[in-house]
């Protein structure tokens, strides 16, 4: 089993995975104030909750879009495993051809998602990742990462609405029963959830039209499970997509360097 960690702006995904199965996937809140010891305790506690020992970790890999925390988490992993994790970034072999104006600016999480999707789905592929931001990435017919879009995530939109409108409360995002709300909370919740579902449906249609080919679609990210069931497209949800991509990159880079 390898330890795979993705540092996002809101959450850190921590998982154990190998070629046979995903052993565990958990999320902890991204906290810039935590020390490497505190993150080491988080990782160790998660493993113990799932009845796995640190001694079962053969190696580790980290992707991050939070530069101030990258070294902290890297050191935390080394503290509990004794192994220096690989870091997704410049110089890592990905096998992914990135056709962007500046390929170096593409987020490591988007690269990892794309690597995983290319293994499991036929091109062209649309990858929806719903976290702090919602990203929709496109793999073209030839298997190239060819671009995408970024827009505010569900929670960001909801927090902004509540912050700027004095009479609108902070609410949860449980599944709505119908689209027409009968009170303020339901109206807000339905607007965020159905609004994002409709936006994703519309973007898929436009991207498919631009690609001039039927597309494979996959969604991931902590908030995607709430929105995907409301979409009109059939969108598989894969909570472990990032971990699968990290495993592929770990194996590619350890095998080729050995």
Explain this structure:
- There is one protein chain.
- The protein has about 260 residues and is of the alpha/beta class.
- The chain has a 5-stranded mixed sheet with strand order 3-2-1-4-5, sandwiched between helices.
- The mean pLDDT is about 90.
Offer a concise description of the structure.
The protein is α/β, with parallel strands linked by helices. It contains seven helices and nine strands; from the N terminus they run E-E-E-H-E-H-E-H-E-E-E-H-H-E-H-H.
Question: What is the strand and helix layout of this fold?
Answer:
Layout: E1 2-7, E2 11-17, E3 22-29, H1 36-49, E4 59-64, H2 67-81, E5 86-87, H3 108-120, E6 125-130, E7 133-139, E8 145-152, H4 154-164, H5 184-211, E9 216-220, H6 224-227, H7 241-257
Parallel strand pairs: 1-4, 4-5, 6-9
Antiparallel strand pairs: 1-2, 2-3, 6-7, 7-8
Cofactor: K(+); NH4(+)
Binding site for K(+): 129
Enzyme class: transferase
């Amino acid at each position: 089993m390898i330890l795979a960690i993705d540092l996002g702006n809101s959450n850190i995904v921590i998982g154990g995975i190998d070629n046979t199965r995903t052993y565990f996937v958990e999320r902890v809140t991204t906290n810039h104030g935590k020390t490497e010891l505190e993150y080491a305790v988080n990782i160790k506690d998660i493993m113990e909750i799932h009845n796995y020992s640190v001694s079962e970790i053969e190696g580790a890999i980290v992707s991050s879009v939070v530069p101030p925390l990258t070294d902290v988490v890297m050191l935390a992993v080394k503290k509990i495993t004794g192994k220096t994790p690989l870091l997704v970034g410049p110089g890592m072999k990905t096998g992914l051809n990135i056709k962007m104006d500046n390929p170096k600016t593409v987020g490591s999480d988007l690269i990892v998602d794309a690597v995983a999707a290319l293994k499991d789905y036929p091109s062209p592929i649309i990858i929806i990742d719903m976290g702090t931001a919602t990203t929709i990435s496109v793999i073209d017919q030839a298997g190239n990462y060819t671009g995408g879009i970024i827009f505010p995530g569900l929670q960001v939109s909801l927090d902004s609405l509540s912050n700027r409108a004095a009479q609108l409360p902070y609410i949860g995002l449980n599944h709505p029963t119908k689209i027409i709300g009968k009170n303020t909370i339901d109206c807000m919740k339905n607007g965020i959830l159905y609004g994002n579902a409709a936006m994703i449906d519309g973007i898929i249609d436009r991207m498919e039209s631009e690609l001039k080919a039927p597309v494979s679609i996959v969604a991931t990210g902590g908030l995607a499970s709430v929105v995907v069931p409301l979409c009109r497209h059939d969108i598989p949800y894969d909570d472990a997509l990032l971990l699968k991509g990290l495993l592929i990159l770990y194996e590619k880079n350890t095998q080729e360097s050995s």
